[in-house]
């Protein structure tokens, strides 16, 4: 690295032959990471292009019915809007749950909690982040819908598969992401800013809300974008709990289908290689990949910027 | 409420501040609200674990040997997790063998040998973006390249390669952090004794960075082993009555069984899904415990 002392000046000028081989092997390992990206893009593009020879791109992006053909070469309707609608519902719904919980956890951990309480809470959040998504899906289907949503909103109003249960499940899954990145941003706020505010007679709440949160806002934003990106890409919990009914609705108690759930549903069926329905997998994958990639890049940029500000 | 270290204001100043009763009330309410917000996630986690235990414990302990040693069955009472448990173990070992050397190699190259140029920057941002790609997209990669293009089919090798590719960016990031934590003086000391750059890396930097790298690798593997979507997408079977003898043999996995049983309407299958979830959570907990043990026992504090 450029910032390190010039250690090389005291070593041999050229690495030995055997070492060049090793270093080249390490370089190949690094290049493999590029190969993975190229592989993803190539696979998605290759079959998506075939898909778009059968279904026109405009119809795909604006169509309001997702009804894949049943057999080989069958027509079917491939409008992505119902799936985007389902994905947007889960993203927004999980944010309604995850944002307040995640940010209040971050403020509590960064500004209020004692070291001892932090010592308990942080590993607990890590455990929550580590629960397999299929188990969270089980929890949503077997607890959130029957024991939480139905008693509150009425048995007849809440479908057994519904967007609300999926949103709550995914919302809980993104709490650790939002909390840990936001907390990092809040702890990076210099304590001189806090002390200045205390010196002016502020209370802890005023310091938290008017100094720390605004100063850490870019980091909080980044954590939220990353959380939404995770919610968009989440597959198992929404497949299990939110249903497999592609439709355009904003009723959270109905069964819906997300982009990811549609992929999971198709691969469980017997979609033969080369059919339009099979190729549709990769068009959906491409859509998903592009949405999450853009979000991750934006979030990464923001995080890098706030790190520079305070370091 | 106690203040976190470094954020506490001098108490004299705070006492001197003018405070109305309302402000105090709002402050207390705000602190209470934050605490509630924090504790909800903890309660949700506890409820989740309780729900799983409550639904699955009886099924698991009624005949644990049969549950662990039986294959899947249409009759819920006879259904067992043998194929999934053994399959997940095979997948985990093979995934580790595939991605650990490559991940460490890439981390060493990026931290120790890579020139600072635009290509390196591009590779680095590429890796961090790969870490955010949804797992279902890795499944499509595995389906398109390993299962279909390389004609591996829904096999142990295709599954392990898919999980390895998915875990690779996480391991590279963990490895780089561990290598960066080794102080420059250690390298300089090695050079002073006449070591070449590679000798310094191999005999000094790598051993010192190993605990951190291992911890990160185990955590990445525990994530991979809990993953369902990529394995579902490449088409690994759920109903299977053999164990793999070969890399090309089909293999099942524990999360796939849980997903399948959860999707069935019969309550007895839901119990089986909960019982299998207990086994999966116990496995992940054990892996995390090993990771924490390695971190606490072997990490060198400079």
Description of the molecule:
- Chain A has 311 residues and is mainly alpha-helical.
- Chain A has one domain (79-310): Orthogonal Bundle (MetI-like fold).
- Chain A contains twelve helices and two strands, in the order ααββαααααααααα.
- Chain A has helices at 17-54, 57-62, 81-112, 115-130, 133-153, 163-187, 191-199, 204-215, 217-233, 236-241, 259-268, 276-310; strands at 66-68, 76-78.
- Chain A has a two-stranded antiparallel sheet.
- In chain A, helix 4 (115-130) crosses helix 6 and helix 7 runs antiparallel to helix 8.
- Chain A is globular and about 70 Å long.
- In chain A, 51% of the residues are buried.
- Chain B is mainly α.
- Chain B has twelve helices and no strands.
- In chain B, helix 7 (156-180) packs across helix 9 (197-225) and helix 9 runs antiparallel to helix 12 (267-298).
- The radius of gyration of chain B is 25 Å and the shape is globular.
- The model of chain B is unreliable at 1-13 (pLDDT under 50).
- At the A-B interface, helix 1, helix 3, helix 4, helix 5 and helix 6 of A face helix 1, helix 2, helix 4, helix 5 and helix 6 of B.
| Total strand segments of chain B | 0
Q: What is the fourth-level CATH superfamily of the largest domain in chain B? A: MetI-like
CATH class term of the largest domain in chain B: Mainly Alpha
Tally of DSSP helical segments of chain A: 12
Helix and strand content put the structural class of chain A at mainly alpha
State the helical fraction of chain A.
over 70%
State mean pLDDT of chain B (0 to 100 scale): 90
Intertermini distance of chain A: 19 Å
Please, what is the oligomeric state?
Answer: heterodimer
At the fold tier of CATH, the topology name of chain A is MetI-like fold
Radius of gyration of chain B: 25 Å
Task: Supply the CATH class of chain A.
Answer: Mainly Alpha
Beta-strand residue percentage of chain A? under 5%
* Rounded Rg of chain A: 24 Å
Calculate the terminal CA-CA distance of chain B, rounded to whole Å.
33 Å
* CATH topology-level fold name of the largest domain in chain B: MetI-like fold
Q: Please tally the β strands of chain A and state the result.
A: 2
Compressed to H and E, one letter per element, the order of chain B equals HHHHHHHHHHHH
User: Going across the major beta sheet of chain A, what is the strand order?
Assistant: 1-2
């Amino acid at each position: 690295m450029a910032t390190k002392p010039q250690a090389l000046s005291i070593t041999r000028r050229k690495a030995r032959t055997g070492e060049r081989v090793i270093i080249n092997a390490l370089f190949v390992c690094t290049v493999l990471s590029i190969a993975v990206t190229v592989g993803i893009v190539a696979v998605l593009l290759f079959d998506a292009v075939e898909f778009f020879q059968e279904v026109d791109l405009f119809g795909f992006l604006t169509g309001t019915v997702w009804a894949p053909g049943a057999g080989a070469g069958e027509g079917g309707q491939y409008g992505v809007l119902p799936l985007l609608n389902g994905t947007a519902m889960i993203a927004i719904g999980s944010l309604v749950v995850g944002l307040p919980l995640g940010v209040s956890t971050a403020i509590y951990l960064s500004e209020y909690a004692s070291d001892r309480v932090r010592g308990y809470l942080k590993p607990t959040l890590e455990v929550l982040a580590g629960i397999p998504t299929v188990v969270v899906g089980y929890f949503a289907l077997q607890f959130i819908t029957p024991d939480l949503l139905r008693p509150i909103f009425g048995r007849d109003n809440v479908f057994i598969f519904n967007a609300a249960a999926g949103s709550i499940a995914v919302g809980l899954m993104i709490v650790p992401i939002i909390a840990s990145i936001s907390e990092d941003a809040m702890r990076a706020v210099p304590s001189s800013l806090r002390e200045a505010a205390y010196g002016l007679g502020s209370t802890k709440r005023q310091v938290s809300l008017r100094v720390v949160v605004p100063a850490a806002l870019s980091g909080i934003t980044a954590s939220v974008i990353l959380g939404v990106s995770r919610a968009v890409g989440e597959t198992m919990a929404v497949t299990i709990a939110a249903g497999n009914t592609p439709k355009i609705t904003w009723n959270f108690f109905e069964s819906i289908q997300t982009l990811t759930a549609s992929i999971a549903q198709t691969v469980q069926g017997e979609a033969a290689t080369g059919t339009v329905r099979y190729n549709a997998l990769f068009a959906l994958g491409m859509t998903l990949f592009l949405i999450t990639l853009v979000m991750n890049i934006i979030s990464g940029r923001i995080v890098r910027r706030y790190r520079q500000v305070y370091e | 409420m106690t203040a976190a270290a470094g954020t506490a204001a001098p108490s004299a100043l705070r006492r001197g501040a003018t405070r109305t009763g309302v402000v105090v009330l709002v402050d207390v309410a705000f602190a209470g609200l934050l605490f509630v917000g924090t504790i909800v996630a903890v309660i949700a986690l506890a409820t989740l674990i309780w729900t799983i235990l409550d639904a699955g414990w009886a099924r698991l302990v009624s005949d644990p040997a049969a549950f662990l040693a039986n294959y899947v069955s249409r009759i819920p009472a006879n259904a067992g997790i043998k194929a999934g448990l053994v399959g997940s173990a095979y997948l985990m070992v093979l995934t580790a063998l595939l991605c650990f050397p490559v991940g460490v190699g890439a981390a060493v190259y990026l931290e120790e040998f890579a020139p600072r140029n635009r290509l390196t920057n591009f590779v680095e941002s590429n890796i961090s973006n790969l870490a955010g790609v949804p797992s279902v997209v890795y499944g499509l990669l595995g389906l398109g390249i390993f299962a279909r293009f390389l004609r591996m089919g829904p096999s142990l090798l295709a599954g392990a390669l898919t999980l390895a590719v998915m875990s690779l960016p996480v391991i590279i990031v963990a490895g780089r952090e561990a290598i960066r934590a080794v102080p420059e003086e250690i390298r300089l000391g090695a050079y002073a004794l006449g070591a070449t750059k590679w000798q310094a890396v191999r005999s000094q930097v790598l051993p010192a960075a190993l605990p951190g790298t291992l911890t990160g690798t185990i955590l990445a593997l525990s994530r991979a082993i809990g993953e369902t979507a990529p394995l579902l997408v490449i088409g690994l079977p759920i109903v299977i009555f053999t164990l793999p003898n070969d890399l090309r043999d089909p293999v099942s996995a524990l999360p796939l069984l849980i997903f399948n049983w959860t999707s069935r309407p019969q309550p007895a299958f839901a119990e089986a899904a909960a019982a299998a979830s207990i086994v999966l959570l116990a496995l992940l907990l054990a892996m995390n415990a090993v990771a924490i043990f390695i971190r606490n026992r072997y990490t060198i504090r400079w």
